[in-house]
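Re: beginner question about structure tokens

> Can someone show what the tokenized structure looks like for a real chain? I only ever see the sequence side.

Sure, here's an example I had lying around. Input first:
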Amino acid sequence: MNEDKKLPRQTTQNLIMENRERLNVSGVLKVRSFDDETVEIETELGFLIICGEDLHINKLSIDNSELSVEGYIISCEYNDSDSSRSKGVSFFSKMFR
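And the corresponding structure tokens:
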């Protein structure tokens, strides 16, 4: 086996959704941006984008790496690259799909 290859760090991350109204996320490193329709967070396993309606951050603890989002949750999507903004994933690109 090639010694130069780095193995990915094994990390446990939990996404716990309750009735599409509350989402608890562990492994949170930082919140990139948020509004009432989108919450973008950086996690230990990549960038996570949460989409919905009337979203708000109920609890954020960077010390414990935990986040709680409430509202009507439509989707959760991981994006492994940091180029989501350069690819046109913005408010206007969502409106004109």
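Each token stands for a local structural state, so reading them left to right follows the chain. The domain at 15-81 is CATH 2.60.40.2000 (Immunoglobulin-like).
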